[in-house]
Amino acid sequence: MTATKEVPLYLRLYRAMREKIETGVWPAGMRLRSVRAQAAELGVSKFTVERVYSRLASEGYIVAKNRARFTVMPQLTIRQHPARTQPRAKTEVTYRYDLAQSGMDRDGFLFAAWRRSLARVFRDEKRLLRYGDIQGERELREALAQYGAQARDTRAYADDIIIGSNTQQLLRILASLLQTDYGEVLFAETEFPLGVDTMSDAGFTVRMLYGGHAELLQPPLQNARKRILYVLPSLAYRAADVMPAQIRAELLSWSERTDGLIIEDDFDSELSYYGAPVASLQGMGDGTRVVYIGALSKVLPPSLRLAYMILPPDLLQRFLARRELYRQTASVAEQLALADFIERGHFTRQIRRLRKLYAEKGELLTNALQRMFGDAIRIDAPTAGIYLPVYVKTAASRAVLVRAAARRGLHLRRVKPQHNEPDNERMLLLSFGEIESDDIPEVSKILYAAYQDTLKEA
Fold it and tell me: Which GO molecular function, any one, fits this protein according to its record (predicted)?
């Protein structure tokens, strides 16, 4: 027996002997050959056989009593292996253009500035050899507290902030802090199924609210006590989607009157095309009834996994009391680099660049689709972010449209059916973040060709 390049000799021998025991080829109670005899038969060293026997003994497969030869464990339960079949190779689908993933345009990130920030972090090698702060690195928490106060009107000190690798991970922490006080989460109509699934998996009853902002002020919300309301007040696929200030004020009043809690997911807020984004809901109140979650994945490359959460005082104390139960999942190096990136003004420059770039691309895509589809499409021009909601006039299902586009190399997002969606329209949410401006005319042609394919199939 000889070693292969991939698997060491000792490991191959161990696996072969273990399989003989597990499949009953070597029955319970059988005495094994001595180390010397086994080594001679296999043409290997005694050390190799001793190593294999020692591992099998430590795992309970064989036993030696009073320095006698090893025997297969008498009480060992033998399991029969089913015949192994060669796994079928997975077919990876490749697309020419991806309108489903929320990536970033390669011209949208200040790579040179980020490399310099990261290089400064790596000068302190000792800092990077330790586990990070469970709550997040203080430098980043201080930078985010200052940035949030200036850009989002949030009210927080560095000690109020929890850093995480993504929104879902922060929600898991939050759910563990809320389980003793709340049982139901009300979700305003949202395209964040991971949030719904996370709270449901944590044991909360989840109820969806449809019908826009007006329903948030109707039963069951108005009359519900001790409920959690999950909202995305700054999400602006369309101008009409931004939550008006009056509704925000009434929601804060509801939370105080009913002892409720609001989770404000400030998704996409920084990418407002026209003027400053709407102030945060958390900053409108006294900070005791709103948990603010800020995701950074739309203003930084998605590969940099960073998000943060501002906790009210009572939940912060609960977190600190049980902080040893949590682990920090965000990279220390990336946290410190982002703190440096923010403090040197690059983060603000980055956001200004993205606002201009995405506003131009959103307009280009809107005009290209309107020219191509004509009256067969309705488009709500976006006011922020990287998503363009379009409504294709067709009797074909959304799934048929998605498959037709895939056949032509275009990846579309599989959105859920919209509340009160007309029978003759299908809403598609097109993510244009990583599509280059020069490719937009071609993307529009492909989508129109896919639409024509569905008409022929009907």
Answer: transaminase activity
